[in-house]
């Protein structure tokens, strides 16, 4: 087989790029290891920067997002028994975020690819990348057959555990990583959200987050030690602990119910540099991971796709390779800002098992400064709604 751009990974990054390039008449094949149902069973954050929402519209995938997603103009930070609001719109000249689940967004992308006859190959086993600096091609196993795809470029959009990043020689790749000594236990429940806007809560027992998918579907998280497993948390224990970490007025109006999904995710910061090797370009989780505290994960993936989309379009339509040549540096500059923001939110709002009294005083001061300074609030807001591409 032959294509112009072979995309490894059928998550949001790979599908969005495939859709955008197709609309510009550029041919792609997406190779996905798992089934569509498997990809759509993953539950992940659902806060979209306004620039990302625009990109979804440009990809002609914004209709359901605009109908069912919620526009949020602010969120709350709860601490010391009180709630303080971050006015996103007020501090960014009217910008906002769209709350729309990643699962739904990925479903929309799959449907859009199918409607345009896009080539998305599922159950592509044993994907291998070859000749990255000369005549790139990809092979995968389909049953007993090995299939070869020749292409101009390969996009590694296969997530943190994918094969693409690992195909870059060790001497070329530099990895930066920070692990946090806790995870988030998340629960999805068919209950009315306790607050119309998200609540990020700092509490000595540990961080908590109240989020939502719709007015009848809530998503809540609590910080837990990495040594704990989901089985150790009954629904009742989860609700009781969540309420303890929130201001009393929020706890009393919390609607509880059976969990429909419950999982623990460790928190990690990770960046791989460079994001290009020869004809291979990394995008999304394959190159960088953030802790979920600032909701930057999917948004950082989207900014990679924005740069790649424009770079590929310039290459094919104008013979201009500047975007491709600058891709790694441009993408990484924005990636590191998202890393900094996620790290800062994480450090400010979590309880660290090995912290000393001095560290806790600084956390309190960080919050006190934030809510006493319009400049500090503006800085938070501009990062949360998304820095310009
Ligand atoms: N071959 C083919 N596909 C693979 C391989 C492989 N060797 N390894 C992984 N994949 C697929 C996975 O099954 C997954 O569907 O690549 C896809 C990668 O998708 P994601 O992990 O969702 O990564 P990405 O598309 O970059 O999405 C960005 O933002 O909010 C964060 O982590 C969240 O998934 C989200 C991400
Ligand atoms: C979510 O809704 O799952 C969510 C929202 C905001 C975050 C993280 C997760 O910062």
Structure description:
By secondary structure, the chain is α+β, with helices and mostly antiparallel strands. The chain folds into 2 domains: 5-71 and 101-177 and 268-349, 3-Layer(bba) Sandwich (FAD/NAD(P)-binding domain), CATH 3.50.50; 180-267 and 353-385, D-Amino Acid Oxidase, Chain A, domain 2, CATH 3.30.9.10. It is built from 12 helices and 20 strands. An 8-stranded mixed beta sheet has the order 6-5-14-15-16-13-17-20, sandwiched between helices. Strands 8-2-1-12-19-18 form a 6-stranded mixed beta sheet, covered by helices on one side. β9 and β10 form a beta hairpin. The structure holds adenosine-5-diphosphoribose and P-hydroxybenzoic acid. Residues 45-47, 198, 211, 219, 292-295 line the site of P-hydroxybenzoic acid.
What is the count of structural domains? Answer: 2
Fraction of residues in helix: 25-40%
Report the biggest beta sheet as strand number plus sense, adding barrel if it closes.
Answer: 8 strands, mixed
Low-confidence stretches: none
Mean pLDDT: 97
Strand content: 25-35%
> What is the number of helical segments per DSSP (H or I, 4+ residues)?
12
**Total strands:** 20
Strand order of the largest sheet: 6-5-14-15-16-13-17-20
| Bound compounds | adenosine-5-diphosphoribose, P-hydroxybenzoic acid
Name the overall outline.
globular
Structural class: alpha+beta
């Amino acid at each position: 087989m032959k294509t112009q751009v072979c995309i490894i990974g059928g998550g949001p990054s790979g599908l969005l790029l495939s859709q955008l390039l197709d609309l510009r008449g550029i041919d792609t094949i997406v190779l996905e290891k798992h089934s569509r149902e498997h990809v759509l069973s993953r539950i992940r954050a659902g806060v979209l920067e306004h620039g990302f929402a625009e990109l979804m519209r440009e990809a002609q995938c914004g209709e359901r997002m605009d109908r069912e997603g919620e526009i949020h103009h602010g969120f709350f930070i709860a601490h010391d028994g009180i709630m303080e609001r971050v006015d996103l719109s007020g501090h960014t000249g009217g910008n906002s975020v769209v709350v729309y689940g990643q699962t739904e967004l990925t479903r929309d992308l799959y449907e859009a690819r199918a409607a345009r006859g896009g080539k998305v190959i599922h159950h592509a086993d044993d994907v291998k990348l070859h000749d990255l600096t000369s005549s790139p091609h990809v092979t995968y196993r389909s049953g007993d057959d090995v299939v070869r795809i020749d292409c101009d470029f390969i996009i590694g959009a296969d997530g943190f555990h994918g094969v693409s990043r690992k195909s870059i020689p060790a001497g070329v790749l530099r990895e930066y990583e920070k692990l946090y000594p806790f995870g988030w236990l998340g629960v999805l429940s068919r209950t009315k959200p306790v607050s119309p806007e998200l609540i990020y809560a700092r509490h000595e027992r540990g961080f908590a987050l109240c989020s939502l998918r719709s007015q009848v579907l809530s998503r809540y998280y609590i910080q837990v030690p990495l040594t704990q497993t989901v089985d150790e948390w009954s629904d009742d224990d989860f609700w009781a602990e969540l309420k303890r970490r929130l201001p009393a007025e929020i706890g009393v109006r919390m609607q509880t119910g059976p969990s429909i999904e419950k999982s623990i995710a460790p928190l990690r910061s990770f960046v791989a540099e460079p994001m290009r090797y020869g004809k291979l370009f990394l995008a999304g989780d394959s190159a960088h991971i953030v802790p979920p505290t600032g909701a930057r994960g999917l948004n950082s993936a989207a900014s990679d796709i924005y740069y790649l989309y424009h770079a590929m379009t310039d290459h094919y339509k104008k013979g201009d390779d500047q975007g491709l040549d600058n891709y790694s540096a441009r993408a990484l500059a924005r990636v590191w800002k998202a890393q900094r923001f996620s790290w800062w939110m994480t450090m400010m709002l979590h309880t660290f098992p090995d912290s000393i009294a001095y560290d806790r005083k600084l956390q309190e001061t960080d919050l006190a400064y934030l809510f006493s300074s319009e400049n500090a609030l503006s800085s938070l807001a501009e990062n949360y709604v998304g820095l310009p591409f």
